[in-house]
Structure formats: C-alpha cells, structure tokens
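Q: Predict the bound structure with 7,8-dihydrobiopterin.
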Amino acid sequence: RIFRIFCCHDRPDSTSGEYPVSRWVELDVTPRRILLASTPVGPLGSGIGGGVELTLHNLVYGLGLQGHHVEVVAPAGSLHVGERVHQVKGALQVSSQTQARDAPIEMPSGSVLAAMWSTVSDIQDQFDAVINLAYDWLPLYLTPFMRVPVLHLVSMGSLNDVMDSALADVELELSGRLAAHSMAQANTFPDPAMFRIVGNGIVTERYDLQTRPDAEAALGFVGRISPEKGLEDVAELSARTGRVVRVWGMMQDEAYWHRVAIDHPDARLDYRGFLPTDELQAEIGRCAALVMTPKWVEAFGNVAIEAMATGVPVLTYDRGGPAEIVVDGVTGFVVPADDVDALADAVERIDQIDRAMCRQRVDAEYSSLAMADRVVTW
Ligand code: HBI
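A: Predicted complex:
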C-alpha cells in the first residue's frame, strides 16, 4: 500500500480542538535511489579518507533509515558499507592537501577515480541522484555530461585554483548542486553563496552519554598529530592550568609531536594512540571537556559533535566549523582564535555547562536523521 504522510505545523484550534485543514503539509517521503561516490584517496575503512568516511557511513545509515535505497562506489578493498558497494580497482588519487594551490590536476595511469566514474556512468540510470564526496576535478567536470543529477558535498575548504574554477563552472551551469559542511568552509571560496550548508551528522546510537567526568577530570584532544591541529597551544594550556590532556589520534607527524613536548616541558600530555569510534567515545566521555585549537579552517570538526554526543563540552577557537557547532556558554565555549589565556579562563567555567544539553543538541541537530533530512531536502 502507498502511504501519504501529512503533518500540521499549527496547534489545534483552542475551542474545537480541530487542526486547521488548510495547514496540513504533505511530507515528501518518496523513496529515492541514491548513489554515493566515495573519495579516491583510499578504500573505505583505511582511514585515509578521514572525515569523508564518517560522512559516507553516516549518510548510508541515515538515508537508509528514511527508506531510501543507497549504493556506494568506492576503491577496491573498501569495508563495512553493506552489500551495495561497487568496488573499483585502480591507482589511488594523490591527496589535494599535499598539492600546491596552483598545481595542475594529476590523473595517474589506471586512475581509480576515472574507473569509479566509468562505473557511475554505467549504472546512473538506476538512480535518482548521485552525491559525490570526492574532492576532485573529474566528477565536477563530468557533471553536465551525466544524464542523472550529480550533486557535490564538498569536504574541505578552498585548496586549489583548478578545483575552485571547476566548482564555479558547475554552479554557473547547474546552480544548487554544491553543498558544504559549514559557512566557514564556504567562506574560504571566492563565492561562498555557491554552497548549501548541510552541517554533518553521526550515528548517535553509537555514543553513550556520561553525565559526569571521571575523578581526574582531564581535558581531551582528538585529531591527527599534525601542525594544522595546533597541539602546541594545547600543551601551553596544560602547562598553564596544570590539567592533564589525554590525546587520541593518528601519529602523523612524530617530529612535530617531539617538538611540542620539548618546547613545553611542564605540559601533561598523555598520548593514547588511535582508537576506533566505539572505544574512543567511551574514553572521551570520561573527560571534563574537549579542547580544539585548529590553526587551519576545519571544514566541520566531527570530533566536536562526537564529544558532545557523550555529554562532553567543547572549548574551541573561533575559527572554522567547530565555532559554528559550539553554542557559547551552552555546549561549551568559543574563544578568540589563538588566545590561550581565554582558553584557560574557559577551563575554569566548564562546570557551568549542562552535559545532558550537549547530547540533546547533537540528537536534535547532528543525528543521522537530521543530516539525512538536510541532504534529502537539498
Ligand atoms: N584529496 N584528491 C583528493 N580527493 C579527496 O576526496 C580527498 C583528498 N584529500 C583529503 C580528503 N579527500 C579527505 O580526507 C578530507 O576531505 C576529509
């Protein structure tokens, strides 16, 4: 049977108790057939794709919950994406982050990206839309030539001139096809208005609320150990406040880690390696607060909503995505960028934050369903 779902945005009439019929709105719950094109820098499950992996898994889960049919195209060797993943062999794409702004686009021979989009082209008529998650030139260039609508969820800020112009070309020819995770990310591009802001989401069911920190009430830091994450400020904060900071994340730049330790002998940084989500969330939930000191414009800052999902307030610089996620004084504190003194003051005010409110905000705004709603509307 076909079900049509209506909802009413008004309260019932105070006397008759009836809902004003004129205000009933039909919810468009038509199941869509959606193909997600993953990042070509690494197979899913390898961690090379970073935040894009989390976004893709969350979309598969959230769109599936809403009754949509979702399939994925990803490099061969991808894991954990259900039965509907088209695994494509080929040479991985070099990461855009390692390229100079004026670098030309490289397409290796036997490119997995080219092979992935041959697959997308072959199966496109089975879908209502393709959502591309790769931060690459080819999918953008192919968009006008495809029969099926191709949309792009851009995962990073502006990095490369050729990419910027390819994005502008898509917007010029097919307006509305571009989305970003935050205004800060969109603002790094020449024309921020090109992007619909869709935030991000996590499978909140995987995160357990902890209403109070453990006895040590340490601070937490989560992220790749790399200069753009600003660990030197976290070390300075620890030295100033005497607070222990538990650090989780892939040891990407060992020399940087040692430099930070040598430059801040009084810092109490406790490096705990890289943990999978289920273990990481239990560890974060024991902290008093998560500290974020981004030196680059973080496109979103998934770790902020992950921490808040466990009840942990977030102390962040007013820079990039995290500053749009944290509600100052409600789910943490947003302090002037690079101001360690202000961070130290915020540490003293952590107890003002209601940890249950941190979880509530994530359930309302950053759940899989909330993110899926924004993507389906897009
Ligand atoms: N580089 N060329 C390229 N393509 C991507 O999809 C890509 C990347 N670098 C990093 C990356 N994706 C993701 O790890 C981030 O967007 C999170």
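A: The chain has a mean pLDDT of 94.
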